[in-house]
Design a protein that fits this description.
The strands form 2 sheets. The chain has a 6-stranded parallel beta sheet, sandwiched between helices. Helix 3 links the parallel strand 1 (44-49) and strand 2. The chain is 38% helix and 18% strand. Helix 1 (11-25) runs antiparallel to helix 11. The two termini are 22 Å apart. It has 426 residues and is of the alpha/beta class.
């Protein structure tokens, strides 16, 4: 990518370049090869799940020096060609029968391995929904209903995944335990605030210190109705996960190959090349999307009016995973909810442009990554008879920005390091 001064780049183009750099930094072809382990004396088996898992498998195949075989499951539309590793597609964010069947096959595949064998586990965001193997007494329909309720509740990703782990027969370290006594090397692309491996795809191959009691407290906190089988599994303690110190996990090594921070640093480099000073506010910002939008609008206005905490031209960069408590009936996602709230709070302030998008190319349940906002966003909406605050109240961020022609559409990016937000102040 060639550098260009700010004067020669339109704000939207510069923001688009920063988003593209963030996505590119997390592409498996770049981040998988440096972390490959030494080949074993025995077999090499590749397993995995997530939106990036197929691209991770392809990169591994291209750079692996010996024989291997395996199976990974990815989201519909995210498969890429592999010669030796089977790619299965399933539903995300609400799981389906294809994901359940793939999860069962993964468990069966790793049974009977020896201490000379190596399991390379490729995990990225989305893997939790793609491995919906229910625990005893829980059905796939139960998992689907609970997943929908969690997604609409406003719970954080850590809270959602705590519940998911304890209702599963494969997450919370169970898949790694099934690999014993083989050596397991986890190669993870993080999409969660804090990069905690147990929260990436609900940690199928890492230990979990949380408990069934923790999961029950989260369910109570958000008023989620549990089917009888799921409640019985949690209350009895039968859904307990594999804990730290379990001898079956002694041969597990975990490596983070791409993270939200790496993506933000790549975007910051693009800004510097354009003569714009970047300020990374954080890679793990959480909270209600509309509240985060208001707060970051306040910081942008402080820059514009007072040159604090740094003077313009600058760009405020942040990542993490906000939440949306769904109250309306619109077409929403956390990134467009954030962006619409930001635009409303800025109220047409001059010289402030922004982009917000999910690095996997899907914000909410729409095949749209996010959107752009400009100082004219509200004015253009009113001219079309669109009331921004009403759309925000209806959780209709996608409908709002699509009507203005400001959606960010990438198609499947084949990676996932969570949300990317950039606010450019000129």
């Amino acid at each position: 990518m060639t550098s260009a001064p700010l004067a020669s780049l339109a704000p939207r183009e510069l923001l688009g370049r920063m988003f593209a750099a963030a996505v590119n930094a997390a592409q498996p072809e770049h981040c998988i090869p440096p972390h490959l382990p030494e080949p074993p004396r025995g077999r090499t088996l590749v397993i995995g799940a997530g939106k990036a898992s197929a691209a991770m498998a392809q990169a591994l195949e291209r750079h692996w020096p010996g024989p291997l075989s395996g199976l990974v499951v990815t989201r519909y539309g995210y498969a890429v060609p592999c010669e030796r590793i089977e790619i299965v597609e399933a539903a995300h964010p609400v799981p389906d029968a294809a994901g359940q069947a793939a999860a069962a096959r993964l468990l069966e595949l790793v049974r009977g391995l020896s201490a000379d064998d190596l399991v390379i586990c490729l995990v990225s965001g989305g893997g939790s929904a793609l491995l919906p193997l229910p625990g005893d007494g829980v059905t796939l329909a139960d998992k689907q209903a609970i997943n929908r309720a969690l997604l609409a509740s406003g719970a954080t990703i850590a809270e959602m995944n705590c519940v998911r782990r304890h209702l599963s027969a494969i997450k919370g370290g169970r898949l790694a335990a099934a690999c014993h006594p083989a050596r397991v090397v986890n190669l993870l692309i993080s999409d969660v605030p804090g990069d905690n491996p147990m929260d990436i795809a609900s940690g199928p191959t890492v230990a979990d210190p949380t408990t069934c009691a923790d999961a029950l407290e989260i369910v109570r906190r958000y008023g989620i109705e549990l089917p009888e089988g799921a409640r019985r599994l949690l209350e009895s303690g039968a859904g307990e996960t594999v804990k730290p110190g379990d001898p079956r996990l002694a041969g597990v090594t975990t490596r983070l190959v791409a993270t939200p921070q790496m993506a933000l640093e790549a975007a910051a480099a693009v800004a510097r090349d354009a003569g714009v000073t970047p300020l990374v506010l954080g890679d793990s910002i959480e909270g209600e999307a509309r509240d985060v939008g208001k707060v970051l609008a306040g910081i942008a206005l402080q820059v514009r009016r007072h040159g604090q905490p740094l003077p313009a031209p600058c760009v405020l960069l942040s990542g993490g995973e906000t939440t949306v408590t769904v109250r309306g009936r619109g077409r929403g996602g956390r990134n467009v909810e954030f962006l619409l709230a930001l635009a409303v709070a800025l109220d047409g302030a001059p010289g402030i442009h922004a982009v917000a998008g999910d690095t996997d190319g899907v914000d909410g349940q729409e095949e749209i990554a996010g959107a752009f906002a400009t100082p004219c966003t509200l004015k253009r909406a009113w001219e079309r008879g669109i009331r921004p605050r009403d759309r925000l109240d209806d959780n209709d961020g996608h409908g709002f920005f699509e009507a203005l022609g400001d959606s960010l559409v990438t198609g499947p990016t084949l990676t996932n390091v969570n949300d990317f937000r950039a606010i450019l102040i000129t």
